[in-house]
Amino acid sequence: MPRLIFDIETVGVDFDTLDKSSQDYLLKFADSPEEQEKAKNSTSFSPLLGEIVAIGILNPDTSKGAVYYQAGKEKKETEEEGVQYFPSTEKEILENFWEIMTHYNQIVTFNGRTFDCPFIMIRSAILRVKPTKNLMPNRYYDEHIDLYDRLSFFGAVRRNMNLHMWCQAFGIKSPKAEGITGEDVKRLFKEEKYLDIAKYCYGDLIATQQLLAYWDKYINIK
Questions:
Q1: Low-confidence residues of the chain, pLDDT below 70?
Q2: For residue 88, what are the β-bridge partners?
Q3: Residue 205 located in a structural domain
Q4: What local confidence, expressed as pLDDT, does residue 221 receive?
Q5: Which of 49, 84, 149, 198 is packed most tightly, with the most Cβ within 10 A?
Q6: Predicted model pTM
Q7: Dihedrals phi, psi of 64, to nearest 5 degrees
């Protein structure tokens, strides 16, 4: 079964640029200065307030992959260590993603069901890009292997862990080992360090690929 791992990176609008009604809504349940600051910095988690700046794809069986990423005026395609990097607009990122999805029957993500997939679906609708595949099939079917979901045995585990913690447990190099986390993406985007974001995105794919190998070999009993 042809399968594809993917991951996205997003940035949100600045809180101060939102209209008062939107600001009030985001701060509605923030009772402390700390909670208010957290709410103000949460715009990258919503497709209504954020945008996709990178989508990385990786075939776990061939180890061939690429990243489509926003890069301002930069238009030069590059290749490093066998990975292709394609500068694009957000709409072009989504158009390329949906065309690629027509060649795969199974998708693999880490926490994609609650973040990447709905974010992609909504941003596509906002930009009037037609999806070619349902990214939100039945939770228990194998059309979508969300490792965050599967490794918690669909919520049976009392507390699940992030990708970094799973990498630590299995001896996999964490994408955070290079000193970049998801919290740095907005800053890097403002600094126009677009390729750094794309490479960080691809690091997530490699970690997910290796975690998938553990899942396939040692945990997934059919």
A1: none
A2: 70
A3: yes
A4: 81
A5: 198
A6: 0.94
A7: -95, 135
